[in-house]
Amino acid sequence: MKKLILFSVAVLGLSFASCKKSSNTEGTTRVTVKMTDAPGAYDAVILSVKQVVILSSGGERTVNVNGTPIDILRFRNGRDTVLAGVDVPAGRLQEVRLVLNNTGNRVVINGISYDLNTPSGQTSGVKLKVQDDLTPGIAYTLLLDFDAAQSIVTTGNGKYNLKPVIRAIPAAVSGALTGMVVPAAAFPKVYAIMGTDTVGTVTDATGKFYFPGLAAGSYRVNFAPIAPYAGKTVDNVTIVNGSVKDLGSIAITQ
């Protein structure tokens, strides 16, 4: 199961079933980089992405984004946005970098907008190490699950730092989990647990929760609501590749 990773320090090897192993470096592979969001308790999180850089053993491709800043909170519960799509020389995929603009990154809390300060080294791009083969003619999609709750850090003096925490999802070889908590006012944190691996999210204003990119297997799903509501656990939730498991309505009581 893929774990949460910090762009600047972690290395993650991804194995995509749709990308067959091959030593053939002739031709190109269409690489699409998408972004989705693991919700956080903010009104908006605005990211101003300048470039996406994709590095393979066959060469480097830079895609200029320079578009309207993205409110990443709009892309959750199964929605995503395409950051870049480009033909990359086939071979070994090594690294993906997101380069943010120096300005334009903001968080909105209770209707008030705050600038997000980014690490000084981020001008070269926040880096995601990926080791996988790109096979000529076989499309490759990398879904970046931005964890808003963990990526924004309060400094204690009324300022906020942006330290991106991302989960890289092999969308072609994963499943998803969704459901609806009743009442929505319980506003629980929801955890999908398989073995020692845990993925977390929160419900939205309607009570809905959604986990994209879960590895196939059996999960325990824990609900940790706010007071005075009581916690709840659902066992033996089976996730199947290529499908969405819907738990339906989950009643939370006081």
TrEMBL record:
Pfam families to which the protein is assigned, alphabetical: DUF4382 (PF14321)
Stored SUPFAM superfamilies: Starch-binding domain-like
Signal peptide, first to last residue: 1-17
InterPro entries: Carb-bd-like_fold (IPR013784), DUF4382 (IPR025491)
Sorted UniProt keywords: Signal
Residues covered by the DUF4382 domain: 28-164
Protein known as: DUF4382 domain-containing protein
Organism the protein comes from: Mucilaginibacter antarcticus
